[in-house]
């Protein structure tokens, strides 16, 4: 059985078989329970049997959205004419697009959720007979939209186990949408210039304005509104721009001196998708609902912005955002602010460069870089305020990682910031996990919270959403600080690799702490610290690292020298202070050949188009 439907049908058959067995067993249990008051004695008091306290259900369907802590599953449509109706259909009647057209069901992921590949034979047999080779564990990272899964859920919708029955054919950026795939209140397929026009949309999953077909559309003094309470939102909106206010696909749009507002799930403000090029200047964008980014690029789209005022209110609604397939965004000037949770000022799944802008997240980290993508900031004011909760093991302000959505390919995540300021109102400053990363700072003014958890955390994670497989989800980070003052501890573990460079009169005030992990002993994690002449490490606690390559100064917070001792007991420096730095090797001359370098704004900026001059 090779078709998607045949696999799903087999799962349905197996579920009915198991349900039938459970029904027979339940009858016996009912008799047993009804008889218990007699056996309980005169008091009639007894405990409900453990086997009746918690029951699980199994659901099968096609994945239509994956987030860090949940999966949205589209289940089968209600059966017609009994349980055997499917058997009477021909293969031709099973259109793949119509296979899963039933209700959508949210499945909650926890850190205990087990994900593994499924085999057709396994679905047809009793659970106790599952072959050993099917026990290979995956992670939530391996589940993408379009996959067919079978999930065992408790009464609260939490998944104990997920069986991946089949995977979507496309595991990359997804199929590029065509113009006919969109519904829009206003469409521009030919060149046009408008001034002072009003465009509105209230349809479900409808765009207010759609520019396509290689058209060049110039909108000046426009008013664009998008309102719909019953729109789908989710992945179709984030990945393809369905339901956004101004969508450009395979065309060029220019918007200036205008206002854009949306009040619809998945209602992004300005969206550039595919072979599109979008220009925006002196325009205000406001979105109210969840999954509604301010300006957004996906599928390879390009967007250039000057002096925008963007504010989002919903959850998962970054002011500057990107979706599946990435693209390019360059923004100069402007004010970008998010009010909702899980809404960083910048969510980077593309190549994004920003200069001289105010970027503020009131209830989230300031910036998030997912997969092999890059965020470049020049003279910006970046502010984050991520709250403490039980879902995350800590709070942070800049996250460089590879998540579970499947929208972004793994690779080197890049965050670089030159000038400007970084304000952290809670938690730590930088966190990198489950990815290779390069972080470069140059002359950034950092404002710290009252209680600082860490400066840099370079470790694996125990995130409930499953960022990689526990024990193998560390970070490989290159961190370079030039002309940079820093405070706070550096944390690293056995499954992560960190090379930390301090050059051009940089200063670090903090300790370097080795966090033990539960991984196998044979791990190659390390932390190397390189300090150029003129740079200073002010040690605030006993520290441990692998390689210390130092031409600069090392002292404690009282100005006393610090003892530097090898793991074998060799004393490289006998200090008179209270702290000891334990190393695997020590070099009195710093080797700085591996330090990263900042790019320039001119490498990313776009010339102002003639239409805006």
Derived from helix and strand composition plus strand pairing, the structural class reads mainly beta
How many DSSP helices? 4
User: Share of helix among residues?
Assistant: under 10%
Main beta sheet strand tally, sense and closure = 15 strands, parallel
Radius of gyration: 28 Å
Number of strands: 52
What spatial order of strands do you see in the largest sheet? 8-11-14-17-20-23-26-29-32-35-38-41-44-47-52
- Global morphology: globular
How large a portion of the residues is in β-strands, by DSSP E? 35-45%
Q: What oligomeric arrangement do these chains adopt? A: single chain
What are the segments in which pLDDT stays under 50 over at least 5 consecutive residues?
1-54, 79-99, 120-134, 169-174
**Ends apart, CA distance between termini:** 62 Å
**Rounded mean pLDDT score:** 84
Task: Describe the protein in words.
The structure is a single chain. The protein contains four helices and 52 strands. The strands form seven sheets. Strands 8-11-14-17-20-23-26-29-32-35-38-41-44-47-52 form a 15-stranded parallel β-sheet, with no helix packed on it. The protein has a ten-stranded parallel β-sheet with strand order 9-12-15-18-21-24-27-30-33-36, with no helix packed on it. With 613 residues, it is mainly beta. 8% of the residues lie in helices and 39% in strands.
Keywords, please?
mainly beta; 613 residues; globular; 15-stranded parallel beta sheet
Explain the layout of strands and helices.
Elements (H helix, E strand, L loop, with lengths): L3 H36 L10 H4 L3 E10 L3 E6 L28 E5 L5 E4 L2 H4 L24 E6 L5 E8 L17 E5 L3 E4 L2 E4 L5 E5 L4 E5 L2 E5 L6 H7 L5 E4 L2 E5 L2 E5 L6 E4 L3 E5 L2 E4 L7 E4 L2 E6 L2 E4 L7 E3 L4 E6 L2 E4 L7 E3 L2 E5 L2 E4 L5 E4 L3 E5 L2 E4 L13 E4 L10 E7 L2 E4 L5 E4 L1 E8 L2 E3 L8 E3 L16 E8 L2 E3 L2 E4 L3 E7 L3 E3 L2 E4 L10 E6 L4 E4 L3 E2 L2 E4 L2 E4 L6 E4 L4 E3 L6 E4 L1 E3 L26
Parallel strand pairs: 4-6, 7-10, 8-11, 9-12, 10-13, 11-14, 12-15, 13-16, 14-17, 15-18, 16-19, 17-20, 18-21, 19-22, 20-23, 21-24, 23-26, 24-27, 25-28, 26-29, 27-30, 28-31, 29-32, 30-33, 31-34, 32-35, 33-36, 34-37, 35-38, 37-40, 38-41, 39-42, 40-43, 41-44, 42-45, 44-47, 45-48, 46-51, 47-52, 49-51
Antiparallel strand pairs: 1-2, 1-5, 2-3, 5-6, 49-50
